[in-house]
Write a structure and sequence with these properties.
The structure holds two protein chains of two kinds. By secondary structure, chain A is α+β, with helices and mostly antiparallel strands. Chain A is built from four helices and 14 strands. Chain A has one domain: outer membrane lipoprotein receptor (LolB), chain A. Helix content of chain A is about 25%, strand content about 45%. A 13-stranded mixed sheet of chain A has the order 1-8-9-10-11-12-2-3-4-5-6-7-13. In chain A, strand 6 and strand 7 form a beta hairpin. The longest helix of chain A is centred in the first third of the chain and has 21 residues. Chain A is globular and about 55 Å long. Chain A starts with a helix and ends with a strand. Chain B is an alpha+beta fold. Chain B folds into two domains: about 60 residues; about 220 residues, no CATH class. Chain B has six helices and 19 strands. In chain B, the strands form four sheets. A five-stranded antiparallel sheet of chain B has the order 4-8-7-6-5, with no helix packed on it. A five-stranded antiparallel sheet of chain B has the order 9-13-12-11-10, with no helix packed on it. In chain B, helix 1 packs across helix 2. Classes of the chains: A alpha+beta, B alpha+beta. At the A-B interface, strand 6, strand 7, strand 13 and strand 14 of A face strand 1 and strand 15 of B.
Chain lengths: ~240, ~325
């Protein structure tokens, strides 16, 4: 009996050991990620523009590239505004601390939903209940570097390079589902400049690339920026949530 | 004595003239200047006369208002406790409170958000031959607890052919349509004076109305509309699926369900013809209609805006370049 239990423990332990051995974490890369995460953790507000290009399945074995651009302003602890332009999209998401409003400029429609009282919960809730994914919100999570190291099997500092003439740190990460590359500025702020995710889980790999620009740190944004006044003629419709 | 009076009068007139004339003199001078300028430079004659009077007229008043109003404004601004550039602006629009409006895929209450007031919002009844002396537009749902919706009805019946694409999954349900999404704004359609939306109260029925029974429930039917008796009158209810009538309105539209089957569509209700009778059937998924009645409501499902009427989801599409709505199949997704 004891032999069986010991054998069982051995199996469990060996499983963990194998897994641990597969992980490879570069301390330089982790330090840079922690710096970036720590910088976001100390901000009271942040604004930026993100330009996204992603591969979208158009037909079997045929991906097409779609582009979108977002102007994002986040104010701690509970406000954001995201102006989104993309393929047939011209939308606004606005959060004033108690409600999230979606407004479609193209159709002059809006929806209103009572939201949680802080940014992180609201971003999660938007994704879970309404399938709204805000631009690479993961980067702003307080637990970003921990989540990143937990989920990735391999993280490595790939060296210093330049984007638009600026010196950046290049970090590569991978697990069985995706590879992620991050370019983080070497200007003391450690701001992300570019993120490139290559998904490997489908029959074909496909990419999601985000370029960050126009960073505004600790800017004092007026309250009115986060208040939504329905434009004349705008119609409120029901927002169907996932159950 | 008389001469003294004249002197006093002359003196008074003189003082009065001194008080009044400077203003007049100024006015004349300005006008003169403007006219002179205008005369000297013909190209500016048009502008000059209009500018000059406005200046002369506005100047004294503007100086007066400066003295009185400016300090008041400044005081208000400076005394404001808000540490902003101008102490906060005064608004001409009201701050609106936005009410949350969220529902689930299978939520029956979507229509009821506005449904309780259907009867009150529409004044269709006032235009037609119903008894206006009784409160026609009463809030039927609240008073009588009549459920205008029919719980036995089902939202759609599946199409005769399979969908070419996998469904869009949302909240455990798969939404399937044949045509691509093409948004166009929803405007309720009225099928004429004899048609009424759900919840509409009518005091008396036309003599053409007949009684229809479905599963032991008695309905009154008249020209494409089903009523239930309530509180001394009749309330428009959702057409009960399975009800059979002999006549439907002549402007019912033909809806192609499959190459061999057609349905008739009127006022949000689908009828199938058999042996000269028309039976109310569930909406045929995959078919399209171009009008939806009041009581239907736009809802945002993921990235798309559907129109929901009863339990049926309609996808805005285009058919031969014309706006239409395709009846969506919404089935529980396999996990």
């Amino acid at each position: 009996m004891i032999r069986k239990i010991c054998f069982g423990f051995l199996l469990i332990l060996s499983g963990h050991l194998v897994q641990a051995q597969e992980k490879k974490m570069d301390t330089t890369a982790l330090m840079i990620l922690d710096k970036m995460s720590g910088m976001f953790g100390g901000l009271s507000s942040v604004g930026f523009t993100s330009n996204v290009s992603k591969d979208v399945a158009y037909a079997e074995d045929f991906f097409i590239k779609e582009f979108a651009s977002s102007k994002v302003k986040l104010v701690g602890p509970n406000k954001f505004t995201v102006r989104l332009n993309g393929e047939q999209k011209d939308d606004l998401y606005s959060y004033n601390g108690s409600q999230v409003i979606y407004y479609s400029f193209a159709n002059n429609l809006y929806t209103v939903a009572d939201a949680p009282d802080n940014l992180i919960e609201t971003i999660d809730w938007l994704y879970d209940d309404f399938g709204v994914e805000l631009t690479t919100a993961d980067l702003f999570y307080p637990t970003f570097s921990k989540d990143f190291t937990d989920q990735m099997d391999f993280i490595e500092f790939l060296g210093v390079t330049h984007i638009n003439g600026e010196r950046v740190f290049h970090i590569g990460a991978a697990n069985e589902n995706a590879t992620i590359q991050l370019w983080i500025s070497d200007d003391g702020y450690f701001l992300p400049m570019k993120a490139l995710i290559t998904y490997l889980d489908g029959a074909q790999s496909h990419q999601h690339e985000t370029d960050f620009s126009d960073w505004e740190l600790n800017t004092s944004y007026p309250e009115s920026m986060f208040e939504f006044l329905p434009p004349p003629g705008a119609k409120q419709i029901t927002w169907i949530k996932k159950d | 004595m008389k001469a003294y009076k004249i002197k006093v009068l002359a003196l008074s007139l003189g003082i009065l003239a001194m008080l009044v004339l400077p203003d007049m003199a100024e006015a004349q001078r300005m006008r003169g200047a403007a006219a002179g300028r205008g005369g000297a430079r013909p190209t500016t004659t048009r502008q000059a006369p209009s500018r000059a009077p406005s200046r002369t007229a506005s100047r004294p008043t503007s100086t007066a208002s400066r003295q009185t109003s400016r300090p008041a404004v400044n005081k208000a601004t400076n005394s404001s406790s808000r540490p902003t550039v101008n102490g906060g602006s005064s608004r001409v629009t009201n701050k609106t409170t936005n009410n949350s409006k969220v529902a689930n895929v299978k939520d029956n209450k979507i229509g009821n958000n506005s449904g309780n007031n259907i009867g009150n919002r529409t004044n269709v009844g006032n235009k037609v031959n119903i008894d206006n002396s009784k409160n026609v537009n009463v809030n039927v749902n609240n008073r009588n607890n009549i459920n205008v919706r029919n719980n036995r009805n089902i939202g759609y019946r599946p199409p005769y052919r399979p969908y070419p694409r996998p469904p869009v999954i949302w909240g455990g349900f798969g939404f399937s349509c044949f045509r691509p999404y093409y948004y166009h704004p929803f405007t309720p359609f009225y099928w004429g004076p004899m048609w009424h939306p759900w919840g509409f109260f009518i005091a008396t029925l036309a003599t053409t109305a007949i009684i229809v029974s479905v599963e032991n429930q008695k309905y009154h039917y008249d020209q494409g509309v089903f009523y239930e008796e309530s509180d001394g009158g009749y309330v428009v209810v959702e057409a009960p699926q399975g009800a059979t009538v002999k006549v439907i309105p002549s402007d019912a539209q033909v809806v192609e369900v499959s190459p061999t089957v057609n349905n008739y569509y009127y006022g949000g209700t689908y009828y199938e013809q058999e042996n000269g009778e028309y039976t109310v059937v569930p909406p045929p998924a995959g078919a399209t209609v171009d009008k939806l009645p009041e009581g239907a409501e736009e809802v945002k499902v993921g990235d798309q805006t559907y129109v929901k009427y009863g339990d049926t989801y309609y996808l805005p599409v285009q058919v031969d370049g014309k706006d239409a709505y395709e009846i969506a199949q919404v089935e529980e997704a396999d996990q």
